[in-house]
């Protein structure tokens, strides 16, 4: 187990759950990943409402981590290839006009 000290010192100390990691150093790094991958993917997860048939478990796990302490179970990191690749291993390009993935 790793112990993470919060921004305000030991009073906010949290213990990282087993088999979890913090894949991004900050919210901006997460946002860069999301823009490059999830926002352009047909499985993209949108603010708690997925407009596609199959919600993306990876995007959901990353979004929940972003809202919490940043910990993501290694299963999702391995599936996505975070740390090894810039594009998610499960990325499927959205078709033009498909839901809110239009850009």
Question: Can you offer a commentary on this structure?
Answer:
The chain is α+β, with helices and mostly antiparallel strands. It has one domain (17-101). The chain is 27% helix and 15% strand. The chain is built from three helices and four strands, in the order βββααβα. The chain has helices at residues 27-36, 57-67, 74-80, and strands spanning 3-6, 9-15, 20-21, 72-73. It has a two-stranded antiparallel sheet. It starts with a strand and ends in a 23-residue tail after the last helix.
SSE layout and pairing:
Blueprint: E1 3-6, E2 9-15, E3 20-21, H1 27-36, H2 57-67, E4 72-73, H3 74-80
Antiparallel strand pairs: 1-2, 3-4
Helix pairs in contact: 2-3
Radius of gyration: 15 Å
Shape: globular
* Number of structural domains: 1
Please tell me the overall pLDDT.
76
Helicity, as a percent range: 25-40%
Task: Summarize this structure briefly.
The protein is α+β, with helices and mostly antiparallel strands and 103 residues long.
Attribute tags:
103 residues; alpha+beta; globular
